[in-house]
Write a structure and sequence with these properties.
There is one protein chain. This protein has about 230 residues and is of the alpha/beta class. It has a single domain (about 5-210), classed as HUPs (Rossmann fold, 3-Layer(aba) Sandwich). It is about 45% helix and about 10% strand. α4 (about 90-105) links the parallel β2 (about 65-70) and β3. α10 (about 170-180) packs across α11. The model is unreliable at about 80-85 and about 220-225 (pLDDT under 50).
């Protein structure tokens, strides 16, 4: 019997919002989906449990989960849910944290079988991506007005937001595009504070490949949001 992943999250109180057609897609066929983890510490914490359990339920429903280690995005800093720009970690510290997080995720997800979980690191596709190529291939497709309208950016405008953090949604958006093109990934999941970044990815896919992308937002609330 096929498990309805969306209904499973709904009755658990883990569903906040999703894009049209998501539930139909997941019921139609096994689908690849991902959640990102920024390696800002050498251990996951209680706030990550909702994300891990979402991937676990996703896999148990017959779908293929991808855990994205943000080796590149962790070097930028996400403004979502932050009142000030966080300290950027060195590459050496980030590489250590990634290795530790990978070991922890392997204890929860099944990396064997027809819908085996997969770990990817966005540093692998960003490390050779030149700045001029990025602004041509990604930046030209997303307007500044679109980026400024995001709640995570609006909350930081008065206090000030650096270009580094402002560009974060483009970097995360490209993650979804890369996985869409190279891993047949049709689904991105994340906390409610990630909604703006997630839909930037779907917009980029629409502009670049005119594909049909799905991006439900599956937050489980711990003190009001995923931590």
């Amino acid at each position: 019997m096929q498990v309805n992943f969306v209904e499973e999250l709904r009755w658990r109180g883990m569903l906040f919002d999703l894009t049209p057609g998501t539930e139909e897609q997941l019921l139609k066929e096994s689908t690849t989906g991902y959640i990102g983890f920024d390696p800002t510490a050498d251990s996951l914490h209680i706030g990550h449990l909702a994300q891990i359990m979402t991937l676990l339920h996703f896999q148990q429903a017959g779908h293929k989960p991808i855990a994205l280690i943000g080796g590149a995005t962790g070097m930028v800093g996400d403004p979502s849910g932050k009142s000030a720009e966080r300290n950027l970690l060195s590459e050496e510290v980030l590489r250590h944290n990634e290795a530790c997080v990978k070991k922890q995720l392997q204890k929860f997800l099944d990396f064997t079988g027809h819908n085996a979980a997969e770990l990817v690191n966005n540093y692998n596709w960003f490390k050779e991506f030149r700045f001029l190529d990025f602004i041509r291939e990604v930046g030209k497709h997303i307007t500044v007005n679109y980026m400024l309208a995001k709640e995570s950016v609006q909350k930081r405008l008065e206090a000030g937001i650096s270009f580094t953090e402002f560009s974060y949604q483009l970097v995360q958006g490209y993650d979804f595009l890369w996985l869409y093109q190279h891993k047949n990934c049709r689904l991105q999941m994340g906390g409610s504070d990630q909604w703006g970044n997630i839909v930037t990815g779907t917009e980029l896919i629409r502009k670049k490949v005119n594909g049909r992308s799905l991006c439900p937002n599956h937050p489980a609330y711990y003190q009001g949001r995923w931590q």
